[in-house]
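Notebook B, p. 112. Complex prediction, attempt 2.
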Amino acid sequence: MNLSHVLAVVVVVASASVTVTLRARAQEDLSEATPGRHRHYESPQHFAIEFRISPYTPDVDSDPALNGATPYKTVFGSSPRVLIGAEFDWQALRIPHFGALGPGVSAGIMTISDPASFKDTSRGPSQETTSLAIYPFAVMAVLRVDALWRDAGIPLVPYAKLGIGYALWRASNTLGTSSINGVVGQGHSVGTHVALGLSLNLNVFDSYAAQNLDDAMGVNGTYLFAEWTREDLTGLGVQTDPLRVGGTNWNFGLAFEF
Amino acid sequence: MLNGPYAMLRFARSSLVFGSLTAIALSSHAARAQTTAPTTTATATTTTAPTVTAALNQSQPNRIVNGVNKGISTRPIQLTPNGISYEDCISDMVLQFPLVLTNFTASSASLQVWVGSTNCAFGTNRGVQSPPACWLVATPTVPIAGATSISQSVSVRVQDIVGHVTSVPTTMTYVPVGREACSTQTVDSAEMLSIFFVPTSPTGQDIGGVTYSPPPIVVDMVGPSAPATPGDHKSGAGDTLLVPTWTPNVDPDTIGYDIYIDPIPGQEATVGGVGSEPVLVCPAAGPAAVTPADAGNGGDGNDTGASADTGASIDAGTAPAPTTGNQDACVLEIRGTSSATGAGGVCSSSVLSNASSVVFDAAAPVTPVAEASSDDATDTDAELVEASTASPGGGISMVDPKYLYKPDPSTGITVGAMTASSYNITGLRNDVQYNVAIAGVDALGNVGPLSTLECASPGPINDFWDVYRASGGQAGGGFCALEAPGAPAGSAILFGGAITVAAAALRRRRRKKR
């Protein structure tokens, strides 16, 4: 998939969501409360925010320029590290009896740090650390199919996300940013961002508390979610041989709609 | 002839000054105390008793070293400015107190300066009809000005102040003390001493004058005990990096640590190495050891005699050839200033040693104090005394400061935290063995004895970036390196474009809502 294809997909999805949303919102604003089977009153709902944690292993070693070498695994091993992040979604379009569609942005951080070994392997690990910090971002279209919850009372909300992923990264050691032959170990990588997930609405477990939370803070729904994410930061046709800091991972977290 | 009151006043003032200067010139410099030329302030007082008071604009004495006024503190700004340290003592510092004297007349009074840990204003504590508890440190000459107040500075030697702490003279006479006074403190337990400027009769008797005593001054001439270092004597190492570790000092007197390294970074003794200088090395029969610096410029005054050079050596380029001994045996050697002799993990340095350079505290620890953990460079003198009642093992390190690694200008200390347990020494050469020793430093700047040596050789490491690039990876170059050369469009532009779409949609929606 080249750049033009990706751009076209993103623009079409975003434009469609916005266009339909603007029409649908006019109606929605009149009624304010979305019809809900289990609620007597609900504050307006336009946004969602997610807090997530994920075991993460970047795809650095998948770079064809490495010719099969595995520098990431050699230095940091194969154990996944922890990525934490947050996401903000605008549920711009409400599609009755189906779900919500809108744009979202996410940001995260992951750092990996291990003792560096001497080149003279007989000396074992040095006192120096070698680190890789990754700061992934994404802009995406988010589709939440919440009709099951809203119309049937089943507290499950499947969703999908598609967009552009982008990551800043920095390789460093005890003395600062790594550098070799004048090439400093920092940069950015771009690619696609795809995610599929399932949310469990926690309101069902304590509707009274949920109603209070809505009354007090305008939080319409609280969710636990599990999400499969594929961030393919291979350059998207605009970068040649970027550091492939994307990856495939499972995210778990808490989401709030408000 | 005197015409009018102004002329009379001028005459009176001139007489006072002349009389004062004459008295100063004729008087002996007893007790090596020095006084500066007095200045009259023409302020009449209502009492007739001789009175000593502090000058209004300065409560702390000036510190004079080698005749140079260093101001009220000679220490880095973050250290305790007042008090007496080992360095203050060994440099034969003189404390110069600005005073105001009133009602001193030729027949009635003289001025004596006494020091003690008790109230020396009482004659009994000065030895009047009883064994003295204080000791006389100066008998400065006092200008005779009658009821006129006179500003005058009185100087007292630090060595005289600290020299009799452990053995007070049995007489009321001045007993001068030399450098040995600086080694009289055997326990890392600071002493609080008070200085009294006492108007007395010429024989030292009380005359009912008004004594002045500035705030007590803390005396601590012993540095903290040495921190413990790893038992295997191995320092951590990395690429051009050493990471010595130690156990944070239990001596609450500690405010930080000095790190000494040998060889000095940039002056490693490797043939052909960076920072090395050619030196003609001859057998012992040659001239005395001359370092390149000495030979070139006559020495910079920093040499302490602790040179690590083992053979006679002179600068090959500028110094004369040896005149004695077998000149044929001389060899041109490229060497630095290293004195490190250890290799292969064996730590050895002739300069980073406690031998003959440390006054050890051999006493048992005094009762610990509750406030110990709060000790820092900003403590008051009183707190310092309490905190200094510490563990044994204190002393004074006399390592040449040129081996001190990068002291912080504000403290003069390499590591300015008592709880620190490691430090990164950077800018080293790989594959050169360095020896490192740690010393505790107290708030007065006393440097305690050195720890046992740690040593290691920095070496190149495999950090992620090295391995990635060596494996053929092409990424990198900085956050502003948008993409590789020849790439069609900036990825950042693409990302920004997506954000722009979202923002535009939001804006459009808001506009419609209005």
